[in-house]
Design brief:
This protein is an alpha+beta fold. It contains six helices and ten strands, in the order αβααββββαββββαβα. The protein folds into two domains: about 5-60, Orthogonal Bundle (Arc Repressor Mutant, subunit A); about 80-180, no CATH class. This is Transcriptional regulator.
Length: about 190
């Protein structure tokens, strides 16, 4: 089977099943996983599929605007964006820390770097070193539960004094946003 035929078969399976693991595709097509990775590379470039942890899924929107969030797909004009740089040097733009934390959780093993903006100073910081404020009374009308990133605990605490909320480190914030999304609150992303 030629690569183009395997790609067509992959898209057909994804339309029927939603998502597939690389190992499952390899077994079905009776080719190596390396061959599958070569086959999916053009599909990723064309935004036909999205790589997930251990597999692939169809892209919800094939023509995501270059300034759009790769998690919730809304136009990203936020002043607090997040960028994820994968091990294969692909850069994903996310509209806010909420989407950044969720996307990080989805592709954690493929992430080389995750960077965000300090909410007060608008400077670029490593998200893994940031402090995240949840449940503040300061509403940015973005994705919920809202998370604000700060470069230092002191800055986060000063903002917390005026607007309330709870301060979490990166790993805690990843777990918290995932836990809340699995609960009754649901995602309030403007899709």
């Amino acid at each position: 089977m030629l690569p183009i035929e395997r790609q067509k078969q992959l898209l057909s399976w994804l339309k029927e099943e939603g998502a597939l693991s690389i190992s499952e595709i390899s077994k079905r097509l009776q080719v190596s996983e390396m061959t599958i990775y070569r086959d999916i590379k053009p599909l990723l470039t064309e935004n036909k599929i999205i790589k997930t942890s251990g597999g692939i899924t169809l892209a919800s929107i094939n023509n995501i605007p270059s300034s759009g969030c790769t998690y919730c797909f809304k136009e990203s004009n936020s002043r607090h964006p997040v960028q994820i740089i994968t091990n294969d040097l692909k850069v994903e733009q996310l509209c806010c820390p909420h989407c950044g934390l969720l996307r990080y959780k989805d592709i954690e093993t493929d992430v080389s770097q995750i960077i965000c903006r300090d909410f007060l100073y608008n400077s670029t910081i490593s998200a893994k070193m940031a402090f995240f404020l949840f449940d503040s009374d300061f509403n940015l009308n973005c994705c919920q539960p809202q998370a604000l990133a700060f470069g230092s605990r002191k800055q986060a605490e000063q903002f917390q004094k005026g607007f309330g909320g709870v301060i979490l480190r990166f790993e805690e914030a990843v777990e918290e946003v995932e836990k809340r999304m699995k609960g009754d609150l649901g995602c309030h992303c403007n899709k």
